[in-house]
Amino acid sequence: MNKGKHFESIKKQPYLIFGITILLLLLWVPTSIHKLIDFESFKNDIYRHPISLSLSKLIIYSLPIIELLTAFLIVTPKYRLFGFIASTFLMTVFTLYIASALLNVWDRLPCGCGLIIAHLNWQEHLWFNIVFLILSITAWYLQIIVTTKSGS
User: Fold this and answer.
1) Three-class SS of residue 91?
2) pLDDT, tens digit, 9 for 90 and up, residues 67-96
3) What is the distance in angstroms between the CA of the first residue and the CA of the last residue of the chain?
4) Are 135 and 26 in contact (CB under 8 A)?
5) Are 24 and 136 in contact (CB under 8 A)?
6) What is the pLDDT of residues 50-70, one digit of tens each?
């Protein structure tokens, strides 16, 4: 790659990070707030999962907070990299969960997702998750490059 094209791609990285940041915020903020607003429904959905009661309680009381914290980290420049890492971790877990549903790992597997995501079938949900997983990984990678280049 010649130096001119490389320089142009470096200049575009902050714009790509900004765009991905907006998309991730559109994912994490509404879904976490929806879980808090409709907490009883979210709690009931989690209790229907084939997991232990103690793990269910941990998920119920930590997941909305972790999702909101992820959004906060993503919009805070000093902690943005950690936000992209958290987003990648969450999307990896959720994607593996959806993949296990498609592979019939359990007899029944409810979806505790809300809003638009709740209306997707398992295949659509998997693709949705894969897209957001790729976005999270891409933002993580680009943030490392931008941070390294700026020395901050």
Assistant:
1) helix
2) 999 999 999 999 999 999 999 999 999 999
3) 26
4) no
5) yes
6) 889 999 999 999 999 999 999
